[in-house]
Amino acid sequence: MRMTSVLLVFIGGIFVSCDASETPENPENKEITTAKVTQDTASQPVPLALEISQGDSDLIVNDYLKEALSPIRENFRRINTKENWTTIDSIALEESTEGGEALFYYDNDQLKKIVARHFGELGQQLNEYYLLADELSFVF
């Protein structure tokens, strides 16, 4: 019992003698201060230094891709603005217990777009495949 009391006094003395300024992160023992957030300062908006995008004009880094991506972008726009498809086929996907569905969009018997929706336990995954001249051109 006496040894336990001595040990507790010793440990208590260590905690009392520790100072926040004598930490390994503060070897020069400078005074550490903390900032308090009050309602007045928390409600003031913080100014952001963001610039508004100017569209294609601010993409100087990828300027060399502009011509190469032009047919792919045009195909993407053309396919997604089309409302009347010749045929839309559907098949069930059974890659998981929740299943899924794939839709095949045809224009004049030519496959243009595939949309695959995979259902999962916590959500779903949607993949869109775009074809140009019977070849895969873009996946979203």
Description:
With 140 residues, this protein is α+β, with helices and mostly antiparallel strands. It has a domain at 72-139. Helices cover 26% and strands 28% of the residues. The protein contains 3 helices and 5 strands. It has a 5-stranded antiparallel sheet with strand order 1-2-3-4-5, covered by helices on one side. A hairpin with a 2-residue loop joins strand 4 (124-132) and strand 5. The radius of gyration is 32 Å and the shape is flat.
Overall pLDDT level: 74
End-to-end separation: 72 Å
| Biggest beta sheet summary | 5 strands, antiparallel
Content-based structural category: alpha+beta
Return Rg in Å.
Answer: 32 Å
**What share of the residues does DSSP label as strand, in percent?**
25-35%
Secondary-structure element sequence?
HHHEEEEE
Low-confidence stretches: 1-11, 14-22, 32-38
Count every beta strand, where a strand is a DSSP E run of 2 or more residues. Answer: 5
Strand order of the largest sheet: 1-2-3-4-5
> Helix count, per DSSP?
3
Provide the descriptors you would attach to this structure in a database record.
26% helix, alpha+beta, disordered N terminus, 3 helices, 140 residues, 5-stranded antiparallel β-sheet, flat
Task: Tell me briefly what this model is.
The protein is built from three helices and five strands, in the order αααβββββ. It has 140 residues and is α+β, with helices and mostly antiparallel strands.
